[in-house]
Amino acid sequence: MTLDLWTFDVGVAVASPEAYAEECLHRLEESWDSGADLVLFPEFCWMGLQRFVSGGDGLRGVSRLFWQDMLPRMSARLARANKTVVLGTCPFLDENTGTLRNRAPIFCAGRALCQDKLNLTPWEDALAPGERLLLWEFAGLRIAVVICLDIEVPELAAKLRGSGVDLILCPSATETILGVERVNRCASARAVELGCCVAVTHLVGKAESELIDENVGGPGFYTPSQSLFAQHERERRGVARTHGFHRERVEIDPALLAATRKMRAETNPSLLTLNEIAKLEIVSPILTNPNQTTNNKKQTAC
To answer: Which tens digits make up the pLDDT trace of 270-282?
Structure first.
């Protein structure tokens, strides 16, 4: 399965919402036409529409412009047989409840799906967290979309243990190189501990938005560190950039992932269970006098 990872310049110079959408659509079609099966765009790549929104509430304005106006008009070009795209993320407004969520639209071989961000950063205080993680299948792979900060949460990875996830797609938006490092280093850890592939792509450019302003990042791709992957590049980190559109193409072999999970004669953290860890007691030695030593076993942590 061929996967293309696109950085997206949220500050691209365009004169209309339609022209902004075309910046995404023609790169998507370029990928599909040149052999990509699946394409991933970054978190908040549609916040570049805020410059075309009037009024005080930019997030709700962007939500209505994208979900109610732009997306229905793009849907015919997004629904291609045997092709899939995760179209970044955009604030989604539930008109019935007034709740905003950071939502990723997914078009999988003609099916329309979505995934909400589950853990929010301090500057996403106008948004509400999602409540479910969707596992879906495409091209022989079981896939989850885990958005930006969510990849940094080990409890979420623990929930995925034993689920058979083959590929985690992580659309991200970060304003500093430290944010890029946190996302990418945790993505690598998720690949090791879950025995799956993890793909990351970041937003770049400057946006006229109260939610995101300056953005930096690049694509990343990580595989399990198991023997069947020994001859493969297991950690691929693209150059961190501040602007422009850049594509990274990777290949994923579902049979290789399946074969790796059947190999029981090598250390593989993805095959471990949580049963014993769940019973683990965390203890801390407490001394009444910092200069005092003790042989009391109840106060000894090792």
So the answer is: 888 766 666 778 8
